[in-house]
Amino acid sequence: MFRSAIEQVGLNFIVDCPPLAEPVLVDRQMWEKIVLNLLSNAFKFTFEGEIIVELQAVGDCVDLTVQDTGVGIPAEELPHLFERFYRVNGTRSRTREGSGIGLARVPELVKLQNVTIDVFSQVERGTTFTVRIPLICPQAAPVNTSLSPQRV
C-alpha cells in the first residue's frame, strides 16, 4: 500500500518479513492499523534514505520493526510521542495535515493486542519502532499494558 508513495519520493522501501515458523495470534484489523500508523509516520518524517519493515522471531516473541532514516525525535519529546494531538514543534514533515491521533492510537491498539511497543530515536538519524508480540495464547497470558516510549 505504501510502496508506490515511498518510492515516488525517492526513498528505498525494504520489507523483510519472511514466513514465521508458527502462527502468531493477533486481531488482523487492529494489527493492520498499528502497522499502517507506524508506516505513515515513517513516511511523513523521512525525506531521504529508507524505510525498513522487518519481522523476526526473537526468543518466545516476534518483533515487528519499522525503521526510518528520517528527522528523528528529540529525547525530551519521547514521553509525549503517543499523546493525542501532540506535535514536536519545528519538526520538518512531509505534510502538516492530519488529525493528530495517528500515533496516539497505537498504544491503545497495542494494549488490546497483548503486545508492547518501544521506540528508539536520534535527531537527524531516524526512528525505530519495535512491536513485540508474544508467541503464547493471549487467553493464557495476563494482559500486558506496559509501554516503553522512552527507550533511548
Q: Order of helices and strands, N to C?
A: HEHEEHEE
Secondary structure category:
alpha+beta
Strand content: 25-35%
Task: Identify the overall geometry.
Answer: globular
Q: How many individual helices?
A: 3
- At CATH level 2, the architecture is 2-Layer Sandwich
Helix content bin: 10-25%
Spans of 5+ residues with little confidence (pLDDT < 50)?
Answer: 138-152
The CATH class, by name, is Alpha Beta
Strand order of the largest sheet: 1-2-3-5-4
Instruction: Write the CATH homologous superfamily.
Output: Histidine kinase-like ATPase, C-terminal domain
Q: How would you characterize this protein structure?
A:
The chain has 3 helices and 5 strands. By secondary structure, it is of the alpha+beta class. It has a single domain, classed as Heat Shock Protein 90 (2-Layer Sandwich). Strands 1-2-3-5-4 form a 5-stranded mixed β-sheet. The protein starts with a helix and ends in an 18-residue tail after the last strand. The model is unreliable at 138-152 (pLDDT under 50).
Task: Itemize the secondary structure elements and their pairings.
Layout: H1 3-8, E1 12-16, H2 28-44, E2 50-58, E3 61-68, H3 102-112, E4 116-122, E5 126-134
Parallel strand pairs: 1-2
Antiparallel strand pairs: 2-3, 3-5, 4-5
